[in-house]
Amino acid sequence: MSGSRNATRSGSRPPENGASPRGRYWRLLALSLGSGAVFAVLFYLWGQELFPRAAGRWGGTFPFVGAVALTLAVALFLSEWFGFAGREVRKVRLAARDFLFLCSLALLLFFAAKAVIDLLAEIPALGRGVPTRVYAYLIPLPAFAMVVRVLINSETSILFTVAASVLSAAAAAGSWPALLFLLLSGTAGAARARRVPYRYRMLMAGVQTAPVCALAAAALEFSFHGGGGVLWAGVFGAVNGLLSGPIALAVMPVAESTFGYASDIRLMELSGTGHPLLSRLMTETPGTFHHSVVVGTLAEAGAHAIGANPVLCRVAALYHDIGKLGKAQYYSENQAGAANVHDAMSPGLSRAVILSHVKEGVRMAGEFRLGDRITEIIEQHHGTSLLYCFLDKARPMIQDRKASEEMFRYPGPKPKSREAAIIMLADAAEATVRSLSRPTPQEVDENVTGIVNRVYLDGQLNECDLTLRDLHAVGRAISQVLAAVAHARVDYPESGKGASG
Length: 501
Ligand SMILES: [Fe+2]
Ligand SMILES: [Fe+2]
Prior knowledge:
Bound molecules: fe (ii) ion
Distance between the termini: 21 Å
Shape: elongated
Low-confidence stretches: 1-18, 492-499
Structural class: mainly alpha
Number of helices: 20
């Protein structure tokens, strides 16, 4: 694979959702204006309370004038902030769904902040010994930053933390200690929610965030207001951290079902064979089910080798070929001992049937709400690669110009993430090695290297973040596990070599 071109994409981002830069800009501006208007309505409602001096000067007109001005200010802030990050930070996505999700969370946070501060101020027992300002240390930004990191990624969670801190600090009358605390506590929460495949990991992330929040709150309170409220600030900061895990766990399922995300916790739930799709795969297409389990094992090893997400790789691999359900006999892994139905079909018809499993898989993923990450991997697992098995059969048609080689390519898109690329490699490697009769570890290694080179030279990895070093590590990991798996597997017939993936 050495010396080949375009190993990794280190330059510009591909257009997202097919939108032009100008189209993305206007969409972002429209979304920002909409979000700004929503925030402005809140300020309209609480304008006099939040800006008493401005209200005094403008009197009754402030709410309206303030709301218009604030709409523009918030829209400008959001479009500049998200626009810049979307253009320049590789992993920050500009899809409308993500933007709406982040704005909804920021809005919810603003409400939560306002509710916490107002409700606590109503409790007379607290009011006597606790300065009102320290309630700001209960604003649950750490929980929300954790949710964003778990459902999207770390880069977006930092972005969200800064934007949400600025917007929700207004709920605490825009005080400096509140703003600094929000920035710090949100970052601390996001930093501790790295891999969260189990609920207790989320609770632990909150427990680990608590001391940081407590220290930050106490230090900020002391430096800005002296020793009076330090103890309460520390206690509220700690409570904020401790509650961040449970709050994040409560918010996540709602966000997943509303916006179509899939956390690692959701992925773990989907990995059980009790899921209707996996049950059907197991009973109706046992060959495909076995293939998917092996691909999952290979992909998980590949992910571990380069620090990608092993849970996502394993679970997405289980579902990557669900589009084959109902058409089991057309795929080589289900043809053990039976005739190859493609022998009696034209290459064009075979092509149409095989290519359809990607589209059908995406449709089923949507129907069963498998979430964005699995759906994207199903869509990308063949990229725009060639259907090599039917190409030879179609040669006469291609020579007579009745068909072209391009017709025997999957429609794509190519893998956009490291996990999708790993599954593509594991899928192709499993399909090829499966067709070998009792291969030695060296034969497995040679075949896997051949597959990795072929995928790479075909340009299938041009749109993902896999480096050459990653590619070698993934190939090595796949070949090691595959050698062990091939040692004790059931042989499949030669038919469909390298094409079933
Ligand atoms: Fe496939
Ligand atoms: Fe496959």
